[in-house]
## 1
Amino acid sequence: MKEFNVVLVGVGGQGTLLAAEILGTAAVKDGLNVRVSEIHGMAQRGGAVTSEVRIGKSVLAPTVMDGEADVLLGFEPLETVRNLKYASRKTLVIMSDERIAPIELAAKHKAYPNMKEILQKIHVFTKRVAIVPTKKLTQKTGSTLTQNTILIGALAACAKLPVKKVSLVDALKELVPSKNLDLNIKAFEIGYANVKKKEAR
């Protein structure tokens, strides 16, 4: 495998950076060459956050070029749309349906676009989209703080992901505090099953 690029986008406080660390750690466990980018944007709660994980033999630089993402993992729909420059026909967009309206929308008295409008914009770049109902799925885990591991589980269900599922779980065990581990493993499996079920249809 020459390279596999994952771009993770969201807002501060959603666990985007931990998700990137889990993916990078799992790739190392599988003996893969991996580069994880620096954070772009502001990591404080509510600020836009982008992280890039590149896996493969030919990967030297940590940044993903425009149109070169194999997966765009969107923790927030509007942030996903804002980062569609990374997408192309080959890109699989895995996106949470939980909307967190940015401050500038309220300041400009603009309405948050509906999901139909968001999907129309994504479909200009790629038809490969999996929407993960993270808010609904967290009801099964009992914690809204598990959305990031639900999305990592959804990513694990991606057929082309070169990282093994077991390695992602091992990375979870290494990086998540022990008091929250069982909850997050449960969330991972729920996210995995959600996307696998859709693929089976």
Note: The first helix runs from residue 16 to 29.
## 2
Amino acid sequence: MECPSCGSSPLERVLDLIDSQTSFWRCLTCGAYPVFPVPPNPTDLYTEKYFEGAICPESPRYSGYLSYDRDREVMRCDFIESFKPFVHGVMRILDIGCATGTALEAFRDLGVPEEHLSGIDVSEYAIEEAKRRIPRAQLRAEDVTSSDLRGQYDLIVLLDVLEHVKNPTALIKKVVQALAPGGKIIVSTPDPESFARRIFGARWSEFHAGEHICFVNASWFSWIAESQNLRVRMLRHHGKRVTVEHALSRLRAYIPFFPLARFRRILNLNMRDRLFVVLEKPEV
């Protein structure tokens, strides 16, 4: 068995996941944490149900979004705060895994013209929703792992994307080719070496059977940056604003059948189990 991220074979089994036949492994070479076996068609998950109403009484484990649309205003404000330091003048921006366009709306609100915004998502439902909200953006429903990234971009974002792909290294290599000199890559992804993952083990809320199939840690970003001639400009743990409703839904990963409540009060939630990383391509 080889690491899907770097092709190396020294893998260490970490733990078996709950309610599935899958196991969580660690690559001793690149720092990736793959999950085996990989489902045959993981992209089939991303239907309308994934974005609206993925949690149901008979399936208490968290997967997908309780309601992406109900949380989009909270997410948009959170994105604006996160992206603001990296938006300067006229930029060409690509959002990989753009969902229904919330992050692209945040860039638009920061002054980037819609015509300079592009988005790719594997979900046809999500892209159709995004087109309604940002009609002048360049949006397409594609599996980014098997398609070409057209154009040269000043900023490419991958928010909660790397953990969804079998080979995150191949995806970053493709992203680098589409990045203009001096351009930046912003990544947000769960940290498999976080204190929360170690404490909660197989009940860590980021273990979504069939959905999250390869995690990467901080050392992986150093490894990929060196191999692709990138600079790591920022690497930190970050939280996010969420509604009480969203936070309670996440608790169901730790306390099965925890009751849900539709409270819209906003919390600043930071379990320090998510990485926020900025990589930069040299000018020359």
Note: The radius of gyration is 18 Å.
## 3
Amino acid sequence: MSKLIVTMWVTLDGYVAGPNNEMDWVVPLGDYQDELVGAADTLLLGRVTYESFAGAWPHVPDNPEAPENLKAYARKLNSMRKVVYSKTLNEVTWNNSTLKRELDAADLAAMKQQSDKNIVIYGSASIVQALTNLGLVDQYQLLVHPVILGSGKPLFEHIVERVKLKLLSAQTDPSGLVLLYYQA
């Protein structure tokens, strides 16, 4: 059975984007992201993350200026099953994508049973909040960046009940970023 893993870039004060949705503070961790995607076969995405990813990743493998490791990562993303949750999109055209209008706990539980590889959700704070409220997240992998924004889009807004987590590990990066692995 697969695990549902949330991976999220977050500031020290708990924001996933600034007041104008800016994310210029994000430090990418290529090895981390490559390992995460390599152990998964499904991506869960909200509309904003889907549009960002679908606008970029399908074109990377054909870009002669892209480094080979980025092309390999893009090929992994492009081949994965993608489930997009949106009430406003009319269609999803990125390879292997399916559009769903709302989260369904039974549907997600069935997805977890269907594979030995993980299900990963990138970004999409509102979906992370809904999954947290449904008790469906198995692991949170938070990439805590050494920046304080003071305001913006919070990661854990609208959580209805306290969620107790167990720290599995913590890693630091020379950039000052701390990667925290929590089991739900």
Note: The CA atoms of residues 133 and 159 lie 6 Å apart.
